[in-house]
């Protein structure tokens, strides 16, 4: 049972996780969780909520676990007295790593228990054992965190020692949860939506408030901490510097005319810059820059840091914008070049010089202690223009109700090398994390975001790489990913190389020239059209698909849905091409 002077046991968390995983109803899941979470200490509850959603770190923490599934596998196999063949046989009944680990540890005899002390971890390592040497929730959490701090010579062995200590202290259910968390794959059937429901129920706080606070203050787990510590959740509704706010997102519209109509005839149009979303935080002379997924990318964008120090006229601010790579002529450089700046951590000065970045801003969320989120867009834009000066620039914009003028602005954006425009409702507030109808994006080229679920080696020159990608969209009903096409087009050699390494690191199956991977890599795909296809269970396939970019800034949960593709099917009566499948052709 939770609580007690020694703290909650990790096994309590594991059994709740299993109960949640085996419960079908969302409502039930949330209630089970709420009952468990509300009796924990604020720290325990925060960490429980994070672990249950497969996370050990906040997105803006620079730490990573650095544990691959073969490592987990090696450690777990070393704990049982059985030969490799036996282990593999038992494991094969498991649908994923967590389940395989659970089966192996329940069915096969364990070697002598290694006690935690043997590893000399102490508190902060694998310490924090509760009664009778059992793992506590806090002990397991801090051991997992400690993995990120292990580096330098011999780090692999030291990491494995921590893992061995953890897994030897774990019963099969606990090991199942650990494995799930370690490989970042939560087969717990626990979406963030359910966690938000659970937090709202545990705190007795309205759901909308929890959702908004989570988007502003670093996620549902942080809201839970504040509530359980007796704080006021309302205090989390306003942003604070150095805690990234979930960015407001846009919905697609077909053209500017349609977008104007949707917004009631009058709107502001801004260039849709083809870059990387950035949220700049500034206070007390410190600048931090966060990505769309709230990672801290400050060290990748020194120009933005310098630009902020030079061009910001206030003492504290949170600004939202897009960073682009710009050539000497002021035109945007290709997105692929921009990505080079973000793929490497050790950024040589020469790369910085060759691919100079520039930040264009389009929103402001906080100025000198005053939140501006709820001000209308027009007012925020005025504030933005007052508080920044070159080298920080506002993104070019116009306000209009004239469809022709809007069309011309769109043409101007595209001919200046940008993707299109974002059309914004002048009276709308900034809604963190929302993809609402107040921002409409109009692009020249139609694209969708899909997840790579498998790949094959290419032919000829491309044989060196996994270069033919199986692309999947989300089925919103089941949450599963369903294949909708294949392509080998669009990537540069350098990108094929990167992708091959990436896919290998997340492989779940490799045979011959084929690799199946954990669904992690999102790609933006352009295509000629969508057609009905008997070949794919989804019933739809993309024709002439081509990857336009690798979206490391997007998570698979953000991939487009099959429904969106179905909307793009030719309507009854419209001519449908005979060709059965064009993707990859
Ligand atoms: P996309 O895949 O179209 O780039 P997205 O899915 O990343 O979009 P959306 O909310 O759908 O995100 O589209 C808005 C994105 O466009 C923002 O996340 C931002 O990175 C980029 N962008 C460029 N210019 C603007 C602008 N003027 N206003 C808002 N967003 C802009």
What's the helix and strand layout?
Blueprint: H1 10-22, H2 26-37, H3 42-52, H4 69-77, H5 84-91, H6 97-107, H7 137-148, H8 155-169, H9 172-182, H10 192-203, H11 207-217, H12 220-228, E1 249-252, H13 256-262, E2 267-272, E3 276-283, E4 286-290, H14 302-311, E5 316-325, H15 335-343, H16 349-354, E6 357-367, E7 370-371, H17 377-387, E8 393-394, E9 397-400, H18 403-415, E10 420-424, E11 435-443, E12 447-457, E13 466-474, E14 481-487, H19 493-505, E15 507-511, E16 514-517, E17 522-526, E18 529-532, E19 540-543, E20 546-550, H20 562-567
Parallel strand pairs: 1-11, 6-8
Antiparallel strand pairs: 2-9, 2-10, 3-4, 3-5, 5-6, 6-7, 10-11, 12-13, 12-16, 12-17, 13-14, 15-16, 17-20, 18-19
Adenosine-5'-triphosphate binds next to strand 1 and strand 2.
Describe it for me?
The protein is α+β, with helices and mostly antiparallel strands and 585 residues long. The chain folds into 4 domains: 10-182, DNA ligase, ATP-dependent, N-terminal domain (DNA ligase i, domain 1, Orthogonal Bundle), CATH 1.10.3260; 192-236, no CATH class; 251-442, DNA ligase/mRNA capping enzyme (D-amino Acid Aminotransferase, Chain A, domain 1, 2-Layer Sandwich); 447-567, OB fold (Dihydrolipoamide Acetyltransferase, E2P) (Beta Barrel). It has helices at residues 10-22, 26-37, 42-52, 69-77, 84-91, 97-107, 137-148, 155-169, 172-182, 192-203, 207-217, 220-228, 256-262, 302-311, 335-343, 349-354, 377-387, 403-415, 493-505, 562-567, and strands at 249-252, 267-272, 276-283, 286-290, 316-325, 357-367, 370-371, 393-394, 397-400, 420-424, 435-443, 447-457, 466-474, 481-487, 507-511, 514-517, 522-526, 529-532, 540-543, 546-550. Strands 12, 13, 14, 15, 16, 17 and 20 form a 7-stranded antiparallel beta sheet that branches. A hairpin with a 7-residue loop joins β18 (529-532) and β19 (540-543). The longest helix is centred in the first third of the chain and has 15 residues, at 155-169. The radius of gyration is 25 Å and the shape is globular. The N and C termini lie far apart (58 Å). The model is unreliable at 117-125, 127-131 and 573-585 (pLDDT under 50). The structure holds adenosine-5'-triphosphate. Adenosine-5'-triphosphate (ATP) binds next to β1 and β2.
């Amino acid at each position: 049972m939770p609580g007690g002077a020694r703290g909650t046991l990790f096994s309590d968390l594991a059994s709740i996780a299993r109960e949640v995983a085996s419960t079908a109803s969302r409502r039930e899941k949330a209630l089970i969780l709420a009952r468990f979470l509300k009796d924990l200490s604020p720290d325990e509850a925060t960490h429980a909520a994070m672990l249950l959603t497969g996370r050990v770190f906040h997105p803006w923490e620079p730490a990573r676990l650095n544990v691959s599934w073969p490592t987990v596998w090696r450690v777990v196999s070393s704990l049982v007295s059985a030969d490799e063949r036996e282990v593999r046989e038992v494991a094969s009944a498991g649908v994923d790593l967590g389940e395989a680990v659970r089966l192996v540890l329940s069915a096969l005899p364990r070697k002598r228990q290694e006690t935690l002390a043997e590893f000399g971890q102490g508190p902060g390592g694998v310490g924090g054992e509760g009664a009778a040497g059992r793992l506590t929730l806090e002990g397991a959490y801090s051991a997992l965190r400690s993995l990120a701090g292990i580096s330098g010579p011999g780090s692999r062995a030291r990491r494995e020692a921590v893992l061995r200590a953890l897994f030897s202290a774990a019963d099969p259910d606990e090991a199942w949860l650990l494995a799930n968390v370690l490989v970042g794959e939560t087969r717990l059937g626990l979406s963030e939506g359910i966690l938000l429901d659970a937090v709202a129920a545990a705190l007795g706080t309205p759901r909308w408030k929890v959702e908004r606070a989570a988007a502003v203050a670093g996620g549902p787990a942080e809201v839970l901490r504040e509530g359980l510590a007796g704080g006021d959740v309302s205090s989390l509704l306003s942003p604070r510097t150095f805690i990234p706010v979930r960015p407001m997102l846009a919905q697609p519209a077909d053209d500017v005319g349609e977008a104007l109509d949707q917004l009631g005839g009058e709107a502001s149009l801004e260039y849709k810059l083809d870059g990387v979303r950035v949220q700049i935080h500034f206070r007390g002379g410190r600048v931090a820059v966060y990505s769309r997924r709230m990672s801290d990318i400050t060290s990748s964008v020194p120009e933005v840091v310098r630009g902020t120090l030079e061009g910001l006229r206030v003492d504290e601010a949170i600004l939202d914008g897009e960073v682009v790579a710009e050539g000497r002529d002021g035109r945007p450089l290709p997105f692929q070049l921009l990505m080079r700046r973000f793929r490497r951590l050790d950024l040589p000065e020469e790369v910085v010089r060759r691919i100079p970045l520039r930040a264009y801003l389009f929103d402001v969320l906080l100025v000198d202690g005053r939140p501006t989120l709820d001000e209308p867009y027009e007012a925020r834009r005025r504030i933005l223009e007052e508080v920044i000066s070159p080298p920080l620039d506002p993104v070019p914009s116009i306000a209009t109700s004239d469809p022709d003028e809007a069309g011309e602005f769109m043409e101007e954006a595209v001919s200046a090398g940008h993707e299109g425009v974002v059309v914004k409702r002048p009276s709308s507030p900034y809604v963190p994390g929302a993809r609402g109808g107040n921002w409409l994006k109009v692009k020249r080229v139609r694209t969708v975001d899909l997840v790579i679920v498998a790949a094959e080696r290419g032919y000829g020159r491309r044989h060196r790489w996994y270069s033919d990608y199986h692309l999947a969209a989300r089925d919103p009903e089941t949450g599963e990913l369903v294949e909708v096409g294949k392509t080998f087009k669009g990537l540069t050699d350098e990108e094929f190389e990167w992708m091959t390494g990436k896919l290998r690191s997340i492989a779940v199956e490799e045979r011959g020239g084929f690799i199946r991977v954990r669904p992690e890599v999102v790609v933006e795909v352009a295509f000629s059209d969508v057609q009905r296809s008997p070949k794919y269970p989804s019933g739809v396939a993309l024709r002439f698909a081509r990857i336009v970019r690798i979206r490391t800034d997007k998570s698979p949960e953000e991939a487009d849905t099959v429904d969106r593709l179905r909307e793009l099917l030719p309507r009854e009566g419209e001519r449908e091409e005979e060709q059965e499948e064009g993707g990859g052709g």
